[in-house]
Amino acid sequence: MMINGIEDEDKWLAEGIAAIQHNAFYMHRALDANNLREALKYSAQMLSELRTSKLSPHKYYELYMRAFDELRKLEMFFKDESRHGVSIVDLYELVQHAGNILPRMYLLCTVGSVYIKSKEAPAKDVLKDLVEMCRGVQHPIRGLFLRSYLAQISRDKLPDIGSEYEGDADSVVDAVEFVLQNFTEMNKLWVRLQHQGPGRVREKLEKERSELRDLVGKNLHVLGQIEGVDLGMYKDAVLPRVLEQIVNCSDDLAQYYLMDCIIQVFPDEYHLQTLETLLGACPQLQPTVDVKTVLSQLMERLSNYAASSTDVLPEFLQVEAFAKLSSAIGRVIEAQVNMPIVGAITLYVSLLTFTLRVHPDRLDYVDQVLGACVKKLSGKPKLEDQRAKKQVVALLSAPLEKYNDAVMALTLSNYPRVMDHLDNETNKVMAMVIIESIMKNYTCISTADQVEVLFELIKGLIKDLDGTAVDELDEEDFNEEQNSVARLIHMLYNDDPEELLKIICTVKKSIMNGGPRRLPFTVPPLIFSALRLIRQLQGQDGDVAGEEVPATPKKIFQILNEMIESLSTIPSPELALRLYLQCAEAANDCGLEPVAYEFFTQAFVLYEEEIADSKAQVTAIHLITGTLQRLNVFGVENRDTLTHKATGYSAKLLKKPDQCRAVYACSHLFWVDDQDGIKDGERVLLCLKRALRIANAAQQMANVTRGNSGPVTLFVEILNKYLYFFEKGNPQITSAAIQGLIELITTEMQSESTAPNAASDAFFASTLRYIQFQKQKGGAMGEKYDSVKV
Q1: Smallest Cα–Cα separation from 451: which of 400, 425, 490, 422?
Q2: Is the bond leading into 571 cis (omega within 30 degrees of zero)?
Q3: Nearest to 268 by CA among 226, 333, 313, 236
Q4: Most CB within 10 Å of its CB: which of 205, 262, 412, 520?
Q5: Are residues 350 and 358 in contact, defined by beta-carbon separation less than 8 angstroms?
Q6: CA 45 to chain CA mean position, Å
Q7: Which of left, alpha, beta for 591 (phi over 0: left; psi -120 to 50: alpha)?
């Protein structure tokens, strides 16, 4: 019985080592004197110390190693018959007279080793004799170490093919039988070891028992190294016997370790050809055995074997490896009713990895694995276990990483069904993985059906799932997610306009329920995709009969108007206004005046009703002016209406400097170089004069409020506009007007009420240098500037 006290154990170990050293000393003296009788006497006394039951396996191992070292010296003495004068046959009989069985067996094994080497008897007979007689020691620890010693001294003396101890034709069978018998007995002893000692030290004992596992596993290593064990023998004799012992021992530690040993020790080719037998044992293992790791390691080894050469792939098809592995995993999950869900999913991840490496062309296999996972998850609530969620993400990511093509994942019917079992947060993580795969590999999603499946997969990003309020989301993460969706929309394309329009309609249907925080991210890219399509279709018009929406610019503009309206109601008026102007420009390119006018009307309505911030108003009016200046589709009446509106709003801005700049910008609406008919010099001059009046009013207001009139920057900016139109040939802009403006600015700058400003001074000086440069350049332009004095 083992005692819990560590100090007592240390004391007993020290006493045992001292006794071994004491008897070893006298044994060495006897060996030196070639005294066989004394040598056997003291060696038997030395080995009697191994009969102790007081030591734990760990401490017993230390004691065993001391004795083992001494036995090597004794063996050297037994080899030299000239020193002890007794034949090896007689010596083999002589040591069997030792009083106690344990010393007798150690001595018998030591002499047996010499006996085999002498070749005076067939190796198989001596080995059979030894392995049978070791049955006499049934104490778990003592028996385990004795048989370990037998395995150690016999491993290089087995009657294997090509060995010097090879006997008749069946000698390999005898070698295998010897190792299997020793393995079986050692495993029984190792399993029984768990029942030694009181329950309170059971955990410590299990740990030490685990440390002894290599003593048992060594036998399987020896089996794996026997040259004569070919596939036929392994299949018929070795594997069934080993598996029978593993299943029958009913010990989870032994079963897990020995299954792992089989997988690691024997060749991959053998595993492939005996897959059914090996997998058949898995459901019979104890429920507490970590079968998922065993099977995962097996599949990894087989995957590596398949990757080693294309020549072996037909073997996998021949033995139907996938079907057998899939069936075995199903049976294991069914047999182990208490297996946590993460264990089952891990098995499917391993099977999928195996499938993708061995049968990458079989998408039906991939879908089968996903389907089996769906079956396991069905009827259960959404996953909450973090490890299980991580494994599902790994399962779904594997096809993306293998094929580098998200379109292939879209063809797997069970892919979205697996995703449905993820909680909202993990669903979004997986959606991001899918988008990143598409972006990384520049995958083009080119059909409306694919887009529909894709947006079903990433629905966690494009709308609020049940139970998740958008307000709860981290803003930075949310923005990153929505920017990813926006980038994804740009990857949806088809050269066929009809199909591209279907794609746009499919995306619109998916994203319009995204809510006020998502739409500003997702609507603009879709609108620009639609505008790209419109430019492809420029020149086409008219309605096409039929139920489906035809791909004509008019119809697409209707869809665009609907989408932008949704933005203006969120509200996100500034973004909506920009998009209306983009659409107006596209309608202009298509020659659709009513459509362009309608978009401008919507932009003005937004400006009037929704944009209240003064800075936003300034930006908006400049955008409106700039866009209107570029458009040439409008007739005189429509253009006058829009131009009048733009100039009117410009003059109503809150701050005088903003008013001034917006009004002089409007002058460009009446003078467009590349457009016949729009060169109204008088209205240009009116705009500039109005801007001058506003600039003058701004100076006066500044003088009243601050005591000085501020910089002359606005006057210099207006002067530059005068110069622009003067050079463009506007007859209303004369050199006298320019001269007058220069003198006005000079007077203002010299006035005591004007605050000095380096930037405006430099701006004016640069403008004067430009006039001087034009005068010196000569030619027609030089002549125009001649009358301007600077």
Answers
A1: 490
A2: yes
A3: 313
A4: 262
A5: no
A6: 64
A7: left
| DSSP string over 73-134 | HHHHHHH-HHHH---HHHHHHHGGG-SSHHHHHHHHHHHHHHHHHHTSS-HHHHHHHHHHHG
**pLDDT (tens digit per residue) in 527-544:** 999 999 998 887 554 444
Cβ(195)–Cβ(142) below 8 Å: no
Q: What is the pLDDT of residues 317-361, one digit of tens each?
A: 899 999 999 999 999 888 888 888 999 999 999 999 999 999 999
- Given pLDDT bands bounded at 50, 70 and 90, which one contains residue 2? very low
Which amino acid would we find at residue 741? L
Residue 198: what are its φ and ψ, rounded to 5°?
A: -70, 165
CA dihedral 711, 714, 717, 723 (to 10 degrees): -110
617 close to 629: Cβ distance less than 8 angstroms:
no
- Cβ-based neighbour number of residue 623 at 10 Å: 18
Question: 609 exposed, middle or buried (CB, 10 Å; 0-12, 13-18, 19+)?
Answer: exposed
409 touches 365 (CB < 8 A): no
Phi-psi region of 515 (alpha: psi -120 to 50; beta: other; left: phi over 0): left
Contact, 595 vs 633, CB < 8 A?
no
Please state, in angstroms and rounded to a whole number, the distance separating the CA atoms of residues 630 and 668: 10
CA–CA dist 750, 571 (Å, integer):
50
Residues 6+ apart with CB under 8 A from 677: none
> Which residue is associated with the tokens 């969620």?
389
CA angle 454, 458, 462 (to 5 degrees): 115
H helices of 707-778, in order, are 713-728, 735-750, 758-777
How far apart CA 565 and CA 118 sit, in angstroms, is 100
Angle, alpha carbons 427-428-434 (nearest 5°): 95
* 3-class DSSP assignment, residue 10: helix
Q: How far apart are CA 348 and CA 395, in angstroms?
A: 7
735's tokens? 């050199």
How far is 622 from 625, CA to CA, in rounded Å? Answer: 5
Q: Which helix (H) or strand (E) is 329 found in, with range?
A: helix 321-335
